[in-house]
Write a structure and sequence with these properties.
The protein is an alpha+beta fold and about 475 residues long. The protein has three domains: about 1-45 and about 150-215 and about 315-355, FAD/NAD(P)-binding domain (3-Layer(bba) Sandwich), CATH 3.50.50.60; about 90-140 and about 220-310, D-Amino Acid Oxidase, Chain A, domain 2, CATH 3.30.9.10; about 370-455, Arc Repressor Mutant, subunit A (Orthogonal Bundle). It contains twelve helices and 21 strands. The protein has helices at about 15-25, 60-80, 100-110, 120-125, 150-160, 205-210, 280-290, 335-355, 375-385, 400-410, 420-425, 440-450, and strands at about 1-10, 30, 50, 90-95, 115-120, 135-140, 145, 165-170, 175-180, 185, 190-200, 220-230, 240, 250-255, 260-265, 270, 300-310, 315-320, 325-330, 395, 400. The strands form five sheets. Strands 1, 2, 8, 9, 10, 11, 18 and 19 form an eight-stranded mixed sheet that branches. Strands 12, 14, 15, 16 and 17 form a five-stranded antiparallel sheet that branches. The protein has a four-stranded mixed sheet with strand order 5-6-4-13. Strand 1 (about 1-10), helix 1 (about 15-25) and strand 2 (about 30) form a beta-alpha-beta unit. Helix 1 crosses helix 8 and helix 10 crosses helix 12 (about 440-450). The protein is globular, with a radius of gyration of 22 Å. About 50% of the residues are buried. Bound molecules: flavin-adenine dinucleotide. Flavin-adenine dinucleotide binds near residues 10 and 307. Flavin-adenine dinucleotide (FAD) binds near residues 35, 48, 204 and 224.
Length: about 475
């Protein structure tokens, strides 16, 4: 049985952040994930916004980790060589919402958000030309940003692997035992042992606590549905929120890193892993979005998707069980994506105070995937000369070449599924959603993974694309 200093359960953004924080400090860590790839829970389907921090109630964990996380993101993205769009965010309202915006401004100032300011109608409509006519006033948060949540998570895992950590996918933890020295953590097929365990299992976090004999908490699940628009309809340049209510941040319009616009999310109570999108959700988005921006062209919708928030009371729950070496994170809903690096920093510091040994470690830097679209003509020509696969376009919509796909297949955390490749280098992400390129992509994957095409899945067993 392999022995580690720390075992992290759950490879969403929180688990991946802890994994990266530990491995950069020379700690031998293992990241255990039940799915066949990382970033498969809440982390794969959210608004991708690094929140500035005006929304959480002051003096809560949400406020503390939101602010620190938002400070950490720019340098973290630069270290990981992933993009971040530092565009700021806007909350907009009609004149009747002035008091609400003022309240939000004051809360933000209390939380320590830098640069917040109220913007009046004329300047506001110059900043964003597609705001709804009724919008008179806005709160601008310059430190708000947009990232690709799954790519950041993947990059953190890759960095952890390059720095000595191990990621075990298809490792659904179903047993945790404690002997004198260590915890033994088991899936149906395999066991590992570790001195420290951190539960970052999102929807599955209560079950993990139960296995470790730690307390469980009341958990609610709230679905957020989205409409994704084609790149040709890029009608906002930063996230545009309505005034938040007790139900959440509301339906927003936000650009993605790659130039699409997302509309959503809804906030509908649901079963733990229900990511379906239905007519009620779509109608809600259509009804509410026009309160902030002009009516989008719905002919430009290329995809519907949903993510599930795990809510446990009003704040994050981050604790250590009974002075043991078992730590847990529960109810990491929004702004969990933003807060994740700060949660990781805090947890690792706590473990160090409780006996975890770190070592001097020279960072092995993660390299970005080559993106042929961003290369100069000269560089692209030289690359194609060296490897002609970079000259063969597979995905026409996103202009992704065979070389880029093969490079992802050989990356430190080798993806095994179509979704895995898609989240790394974007084939099938565009207007045709794989209608044209999927057969080619499957062929390339089968050749490089050395398995029959019939065994290629979208996202794991049971989602095979071709019939045997
Ligand atoms: C609709 C929506 C919009 C959001 N928008 C934003 C936003 O714009 N900005 C922001 O800051 N936050 C946002 N959030 C919140 C953010 O997405 C979450 O806080 C964050 O992704 C939680 O990460 P996590 O690592 O805790 O959980 P997850 O990403 O769910 O990861 C948990 C992992 O644990 C694994 N797991 C579960 N059980 C087991 C087991 N037994 N063994 C092994 N592995 C297991 C799961 O498969 C999963 O991969 C949003 C959330 C939603 C749903």
């Amino acid at each position: 049985m392999e022995n580690f200093e720390v075992a992290i359960i759950g490879a969403g953004i929180v688990g991946a952040s802890v994994f990266s924080e530990l491995t950069r400090k020379g700690v031998r860590a293992v990241l255990l994930e039940k799915e066949c790839d990382v970033a498969n829970g809440s982390t794969k389907a959210n608004s991708g916004i690094v929140h500035a921090g005006y929304d959480p109630v002051p003096d809560t964990l949400k406020a503390k980790f939101n602010i620190r996380g938002s400070q950490m993101y720019p340098s973290m993205c630069s270290r990981l060589k992933v993009n971040i769009l530092q565009c700021g965010t806007l909350v907009v309202a009609c004149e009747s919402g002035r008091a609400g915006l003022q309240e939000l401004l004051e809360r933000g100032l209390k939380n320590g958000v830098p640069g917040l300011r109220i913007i009046e109608r004329e300047e506001l409509h110059q900043m964003e030309e597609n705001l709804a006519d009724c919008i008179d006033i806005g709160l601008f948060a310059p430190t708000g940003a947009v990232i690709s949540p799954y790519l950041v998570c993947i990059a953190l895992c890759e960095e952890g692997i390059l720095n000595g950590g191990i990621v075990k996918t298809e490792f659904g933890v179903c047993k945790i035992e404690k002997n004198e020295e260590n915890y033994v953590i088991s899936s149906e097929k395999e066991s590992v042992s570790a001195k420290f365990v951190i539960n970052c299992a999102g929807v599955g976090a209560n079950k993990i606590n139960e296995l470790a004999g730690a307390p469980t908490f009341d958990m609610k699940h709230v679905k957020g549905e989205y409409l994704l628009l084609d790149k040709s309809h890029g009608f906002v340049s930063r996230p545009i929120f309505p005034l938040p209510t007790a139900a959440g941040k509301g339906i927003l319009a936000t650009p993605t890193l790659h130039g699409n616009v997302m509309l959503g999310p809804t906030a509908i109570p649901c079963e733990p892993e229900d990511t379906t999108v239905d007519e009620t959700g779509i109608s809600q988005i259509k009804e509410k979005i026009v309160l902030s921006v002009q009516e989008p062209n719905y002919k430009k919708v290329i995809k519907l998707f949903a993510g599930v928030r795990v809510v446990s009371g009003d704040d994050f729950i981050i604790d250590r069980f009974n002075k043991t070496n078992f730590y847990y994170t529960i109810g990491i809903c929004s702004p969990g994506l933003t807060a994740a690096p700060a949660i990781a920093e805090y947890l690792v510091q706590k473990m160090i105070e409780n006996g975890l040994k770190t070592r001097e470690h020279k960072l092995v830097v993660r390299q970005a995937y080559i993106n042929t679209e961003t290369l100069s003509k000269k560089k692209l020509k030289a690359l194609i000369k060296k490897d002609p696969a970079f000259g063969r376009i597979v995905c026409r919509c996103e202009k992704i070449t065979e070389g880029e796909i093969i490079q992802a297949l050989n990356s430190p955390l080798r993806p095994k599924t179509v979704d895995g490749i898609k989240r790394r280098v974007r084939p099938t992400m565009g207007r045709c959603q794989g209608g044209f390129c999927l057969p080619k992509l499957i062929k390339i994957m089968a050749e490089n993974l050395n398995i029959p095409e019939e065994e290629i899945t979208l996202h794991g067993l049971g989602s095979e694309v071709l019939k045997k």
